[in-house]
TrEMBL record:
Residues 168-289 form the Fe2OG dioxygenase domain. It comes from Acacia crassicarpa. This is procollagen-proline 4-dioxygenase. Belongs to the P4HA family. It comes from the Eukaryota. It holds the Pfam family 2OG-FeII_Oxy_3.
Length: 294
């Protein structure tokens, strides 16, 4: 009887603790599996560099390679990708961050320094150097890519052609400009209105500005008529208002002076705000609607 009692008590205790034990064991294995799978997932991600954006880029690159077409005599055998931001549709203005390296910018400044002269204006009917004095106070020099033995301007010019989708032969020589403290360029158009400047053999279609230096204060490129602002006739062509783009070394700015039908976009009026602190260097490439041979 005593032995049976002991056996009965043991059986009762086993049944008493069976369910809690099984429950705890299940929880243990569930947690172990959960944390184990998470750890494995993270380890695998670190090991293979699994990140959504790079994988997407790899896939895009692979697909691009598969879909390359045979190019023409003047075409490319590779895909070109140049990041940009649309700053405005009125005027059409695009911003290209890190378009050139710091080394390239400094190289351009070095070759331009020796040839700097006071900047000049294309005069309209009735204008003279005397009555237009103070409108444009920078200094500059015109340089073709062939003038740069380092090859930097050649590389930049080729990249501008790809960014604008306009052949290099449509571009004028680079106008390398320096703005010191207080120097500026009042608001103006890059395109030449035939009613003011006379008949034109070709027209400036677009302008590409490559900022060669940072500017501590001032020196912004301004578009006072952006999206129709300040067009009530009260603007004095000197005030820095509207859309303003701060110069940053290596960044590029592209804007179009003409509409698709060839007429001048009135919102493409732009200027250079006075430099307040520092020095501004910029390489300007004017691009025309016809090929340039001189």
């Amino acid at each position: 009887m005593k032995a049976k009692t002991v056996k009965g008590n043991w059986s009762w205790r086993t049944k008493k603790f069976a369910l809690p034990s099984v429950f705890l064991i299940c929880i243990f294995f569930f947690l172990a599996g959960f944390f184990g799978s998470s750890l494995f997932s993270h380890s695998k991600g670190d090991l293979y560099g699994v990140r959504p954006r790079p994988r997407l880029l790899e896939s895009t690159t692979a697909e691009a390679d598969n879909y390359l077409l045979p190019a023409g005599e003047t075409g490319d055998d590779s895909i070109t990708s140049i990041p940009f931001q649309v700053l405005s549709w009125k005027p059409r203005a695009l911003y290209f961050p890190k378009f050139a390296s710091a080394e390239q910018c400094e190289s351009i400044i070095d070759i331009a320094k020796a040839g700097l002269k006071p900047s000049t204006l294309a005069l309209r009917k009735g204008e003279t150097e005397v009555n237009t004095k103070g409108i444009r106070t920078s200094s500059g020099v015109f340089l073709s890519a062939s003038d740069d033995k380092s090859g930097t301007l050649d590389v930049i010019e080729e990249k501008i052609a790809r960014a604008t989708k306009i052949p290099r032969i449509n571009g004028e020589a680079f106008n390398i400009l320096r703005y010191e403290i207080g120097q500026k360029y009042n608001s103006h158009y890059d395109a030449f209105n035939p009613s003011e400047y006379g008949p034109q053999k070709s027209q400036r279609l677009a302008s590409f500005l490559l900022y060669l230096t940072d500017v501590e204060e001032g020196g912004e490129t301004m578009f006072p008529f952006e999206d129709g602002q300040n067009m009530d006739g009260s603007y004095n062509y000197e005030e820095c208002v509207g859309l303003r783009v701060r110069p940053r070394q290596g960044d590029g700015l592209l804007f179009y002076s003409l509409f698709h039908n060839g007429t001048i976009d009135p919102t493409s009026l732009h200027g250079s705000c006075p430099v307040i602190k520092g020095e501004k260097w910029v390489a300007t490439k004017w691009i025309r609607d016809q090929e340039q041979y001189d």
